[in-house]
Write a structure and sequence with these properties.
The structure is a homodimer of 190-residue chains.
Chain A lengths: L1 H10 L1 E3 L3 E3 L1 H5 L1 E2 L1 H14 L7 E5 L4 H11 L3 E7 L8 E8 L4 E8 L8 E9 L3 H13 L2 E11 L4 H7 L4 E10 L4 E3 L2
Helix pairs in contact in A: 3-4
Chain lengths: 190, 190
């Protein structure tokens, strides 16, 4: 998506450790024009796929999922992150490792809200190592629902995680696909 | 707002400890029709007030803030919650006590994203004891920006916190105002 790439080039900052800082428009201060365009583009890409629910993870996936869900006219469910390993009640839970924060955490959704009849579109802001995405896919498997596909704002292609999942048959649509990045240059997949 | 009240009556569950469970439509599984209506209503209420930024707090405020911000055409900034007391870098931070979880936490925004020239609308899902709201107001004071008003999905009027702030001159618009609630009955302020 041209607008996402242009915004990354204009405002993204590449920091040591392969970190792309996009807080000025995506994941802390949110540009709502770009957000609207992103929601519309995700809805366009998955039109006719019978999506019944958008699934994301707190916190920075929520705005993008909400934009997509409003355009598509379907509910948005977000998994919560818990640092503790004890998870109560009727929930689906999966363990995810965060490289950014160097910790394991559980992602959890109530089993009331993810149903075997659901056709789920997973939405998130970043796809880097794929751990959060695999956790969300795990929740869908536990709920026996159909995972229709994935929509990501920014994919770090150089990790290989997105292409590995594509090779396994997962449909992943990323608004911007970064092949390589340094402090001097960001190269997108064409 | 009629639609919010109707949804609370249809799906809200009052639990011991004055907890109103609205996870099925507001703060875990999000009804995007209601979300759209809420965003539009907030935009209507604050039309002509020169709002330049919507400020909220992760995680359950984000979808509502995003809906309002998209309709109003202004950016949405969300404060992050930190359990640690050490906050690095150029940030504004305020301490908030959570009655739900029985802990203190810091709410933090980067000082790059909240400017003295901003006219801020604070948005959140709940107003109960007002601690999170006072924390967000504190961030606005630190940034020397103008706090235009507050928009809340559900206010628990019986705590008195909202009316206390109104008496101090703060404009608070709540989509549903609960005067009293029990397992048998929820009474709204008319």
């Amino acid at each position: 998506m041209k607008q996402m790439e242009e915004m990354i080039l204009a405002e993204g900052q590449v920091l040591p450790g392969d970190i792309l800082k996009v807080g000025s428009f995506l994941n802390q201060n949110i540009d709502t024009t770009l957000l609207h365009q992103t929601g519309d583009e995700i809805a366009r890409l998955y039109e006719g796929c019978g999506v019944s629910k958008v699934l994301t993870i707190e916190a920075s996936g929520i705005a993008i999922a909400a934009a997509a869900g409003m355009t598509m006219g379907v509910p948005v469910l977000f998994a919560k992150k818990h640092r503790t390993s004890n998870v109560d009640g009727d929930v689906y839970a999966a363990k995810v490792h965060s490289f950014t924060h160097g910790v394991d955490y559980n992602i959890v959704v109530s089993s009331d809200y993810l149903l075997p009849t659901d056709r789920v579109l997973i939405v998130d802001d970043f796809l880097a190592n794929g751990h959060a995405l695999r956790g969300l896919m795990d929740l869908c498997e536990q709920a026996h629902c159909e995972m229709v596909g994935v929509a990501i704002a920014i994919e770090k292609c150089f990790t290989g995680a997105g292409d590995e999942l594509r090779a396994q048959g997962v449909r992943i649509e990323s608004m911007a696909m970064i092949e390589s990045m340094s402090a001097h240059e960001i190269v997108f997949r064409s």
